[in-house]
């Protein structure tokens, strides 16, 4: 038995597609797979346009840049997220303003968004943490009331649904990541999606060094080298063919974890809103304060079960530590939370083994 935390599943289709790229010689940013991947991705999400990038971080950077967010502007972000939600705000010279998350869902608390508002607020970046959709109805209402932009950080939530729509397609722009540990991977890559084709066309132009190809090497604006390569897009296309299988596996794993662990041994899961369905990118839980997480992780590791701590609140990192507000829920979830093995390489039996091992350790 070999259990993986979040490793990707790569097989025959991926090999075939990548071999095609190598045989064609078009391994870099020129080649047909990039636009095919973008079209397939937009089609899956039922949205007008998708533009690929080098990473999810680059996607978030381009979304903020395209929306004209910059000097003196404030962007509301959750305190509990991966740091890459926040660094792009700094890249555009804006100021991140941190909101605490809800204890139940682990996602940005709409009441906290209201606390963070100022005359400089321009945008909100809700993060669907670990695949679990945020309260988008409340967030979109606040955005409408105060005329704010919403850029969804859907990097972890490909396939998650809120109110009948995929996460990433509800705000003004949505950003995805295809890092090696995500539900589908291109090795490293990202996507910006939206319904405003003009904006997306402009992002496509920006990520290609702002090159006006009709005039050769002519660059009327400052651009970026944020393009996805043909070889990465080939991997992405192959993975899209298996997305349905991956999503179903992750959903089933989370169901087993709940059946086996919920309401027992002080384990609690992320709560979901009515009408929301998580992508269960990673199934994560919190334990009561009597559980020592480092010791539990060590004991699990010795029995072949890898786990990962929940993100440390971004507000605790030196570049962001000047906000003296106390982010009680973010801190508590970090202190008590663990991500459980959720790789699509695992079998249902692996997940049952994780549950059995966890139960034994917690009751010993
Ligand atoms: C919440 C969140 N935001 C942003 C990113 C950035 O994505 P990438 O690693 O592709 O740059 C990630 C993933 O790594 C993430 O988990």
Which class do the helix and strand fractions yield?
Answer: alpha/beta
What's the CATH first level of the largest domain? Alpha Beta
Summarize the biggest pleated sheet: 7 strands, mixed
DSSP helix fraction: 25-40%
Radius of gyration: 21 Å
* β-sheet strand percentage: 5-15%
Number of domains: 2
Q: What strand order characterises the main sheet?
A: 1-9-8-5-4-2-3
- Mean pLDDT score: 96
Shape designation: globular
Order of helices and strands: HHEHEHEHEHEEEEEHHHEEEHEHEH
Quick one: CATH superfamily of the largest domain? Answer: Type I PLP-dependent aspartate aminotransferase-like (Major domain)
Please tally the helical runs, counting DSSP H or I stretches of 4 or more residues: 12
Given as residue ranges, the uncertain stretches (5+ residues, pLDDT < 50) are none
CATH architectural grouping of the largest domain = 3-Layer(aba) Sandwich
CATH topology tier name of the largest domain: Aspartate Aminotransferase, domain 2
The ligands bound in this entry are:
pyridoxal-5'-phosphate
In whole angstroms, how far apart are the ends? Answer: 23 Å
The strand count comes to: 14
Report on the architecture of this protein:
- By secondary structure, the chain is an alpha/beta fold.
- The chain folds into two domains: 12-241, 3-Layer(aba) Sandwich (Aspartate Aminotransferase, domain 2); 243-363, Aspartate Aminotransferase, domain 1 (Alpha-Beta Complex), CATH 3.90.1150.10.
- The protein has helices spanning 12-24, 33-45, 56-66, 87-91, 110-116, 136-146, 197-207, 230-241, 243-261, 293-302, 328-336, 348-363, and strands at residues 49-53, 74-78, 95-99, 121-124, 149-153, 161-162, 165-166, 173-177, 190-194, 268-269, 276-277, 284-286, 308-309, 337-339.
- Helix 1 (12-24) packs antiparallel against helix 8 (230-241), helix 2 (33-45) runs parallel beside helix 8 and helix 9 runs parallel beside helix 12 (348-363).
- The model has no long low-confidence stretch (mean pLDDT 96).
